[in-house]
Every structure is written in C-alpha cells, then in structure tokens.
Task: structure prediction
Amino acid sequence: MQQHNTVFVGIDIAKFKFDVSFSHLSKGVTYDYTPNDIKKFMQVLQEIQPQLNCLEATGGLERKLVACLHKHQFDVAVVNPRQIRDFARAKNQLAKTDQIDARTIMEFAQVMKPRITPPLTQAQQKMRDFSSRRQQVCKMIIQERNRLDSAADREIAKLIQQSIRAYQKQIKVIEKKMRQLIYADEQSQERAAILQSVPGIGPTTVALLIAELPELGSLNRKQIARLVGVAPTNRDSGTMRGKRTIGGGRVGIRKGLYMPTVVAQKHNPKISAFYKRLVESGKPKMVALVAAMRKLLIILNVMIKEGKKWNENVMKA
Result:
C-alpha cells in the first residue's frame, strides 16, 4: 500500500450518503453515496494519504466504497459494529448522529489499530455473496418448519411445505454454483482439495471456509481462533475464578464448524483422541467439543499455510 502519514479516517455509511471524520480536522464531511462523490472522496484521500480508513460492516452497504478504497490502494479496516458500540460506551459517548458515529469510528481506528481487511477477488466476493444467501435460505427453512409445526389449517400447511421445498431447491442451486466458482479458480481449487482431505470436512464446509474465511492460512493459531470466536476468554477478578467462555468473531463460521466437529469427533482419529482425553479428564462434553472445534480450525489453518493435505502422522497442530 502506498501511504503513510498519521491521519486516520472514520467513515459512517448509510444507504444514500456517507459521513467522514478526519483525525487532523475538527469538522467532518458528508458525501452523497454516488460515483461522483466517491471520486471526490478518493481525490481527498490521494492528497492526505491516510494511514488507515475504518468503517463498520453494514451488511453489504460498505462493499462499493471498500472496493474503491482497495482499487486506489488505501488500507481499510472493516470492523464489527459491536466493537464501535463498546468503544463509544467506554468513552461515555451517549449522543449519536452520523457525524458523531464517523468521529467515533476514526478514534477507534486511531486507538485500537484494527486489522487491515484484505481485498477480495471477484470470485471470492461472489462466493461470499452465495454463502450469505445460503445462510439466509437455511434460516428461512427453519422459520417455515416452525410455522408448519403450529399450522392448524391443512391448506396453510400445504403452502408452507411448498415454500420449504422451493427453498431446498434454491440451496441446491446455490451449492452447485459455489462448487463451480471454486473449481473455476485455481487458488480456491487448491484450498478446497486441502480442506476436503480432512476427515469430517465436507463440500459445504469447504465452500463456507473459502468464502467467509479468506484469512485462513495467513494468521497464527491465536489470531485465527480469535477471528472465528473460539478462543477462550478469562472471567477472573480478585479471588473469583469464572468459567472460560467463547464469543464474538465470525458467528457464521463458528456455527458452520459445529457439525463438522461433531463428525470429526467420531471419525477423525486426531480430533477424536483429543476430545476423549478432555472428557476423561473431567471437562464437560460441550467444553470439550468447543476445544475440539478450535483444534480442528488450527489444524486447517496450518494445512493451508503449509499447502499440505491431511496426514494424521505429521499433523502437529
């Protein structure tokens, strides 16, 4: 990347505009979320060469601006909105406007130095879109099944069943498209071959990891565990020793790794032995399962980093 000075930029995005706060200026700027105003904003950034641009993940609204920032070779960090809310609470920032939010995001970037978000290829972005859609459809199937359980009218129940079948067909279409995208991209194809060599990891999980976790293989074991939200967090204070918990991170990845871990716990010798050892030592089964999930994730991270397929005898993670 081409920067650097010490200017940090916070960006609060809405549907039709985005507010910007610069660390070297007391007053923020509002731009229309249009190609013309995005171009103006890029020209301002070219002049000041900021160290980091920071904005919240907003369910897709940020994508166009993030892509433009990457295109112009500016470092950008897309952060979880919860982190910004917690930071604002810590500052006792009660007032809330778009300009105040942009200022808070800028100050968060300045103080916390969040991890830079790497640019996605067109294929990776398309896979992520399909993965997101798959999660939405799965959620709608669950909702429809819950409605079916309480449907008293036979005709209503029939309509709900039709809806479920339509969603199930859509999932098949999505999964087929994701497989096509993986095998059309050489790097994704190599990663898929490595991931699918692990006992317990199937095509659906492979597609999820490739689409939603492009950082796999580029981080160390602690970083990847924190990113997914499977790193244990201490709850100790004074003489009190609380239970370790997990949370935060990429919930979709964590949910997607649950069933593969259950399968691996039965059919993957390394994960199975690790899980049994924890249970035999007195750990609750769910605690042992989460630890096995973290173990599985770290193994996958090492395999991608080293470009090696599964081999029980050489896996040291």
Summary: Strands lie at 8-13, 17-22, 29-32, 52-56, 76-79, 236-237, 240-241. The longest strand covers residues 8-13. The radius of gyration is 23 Å.
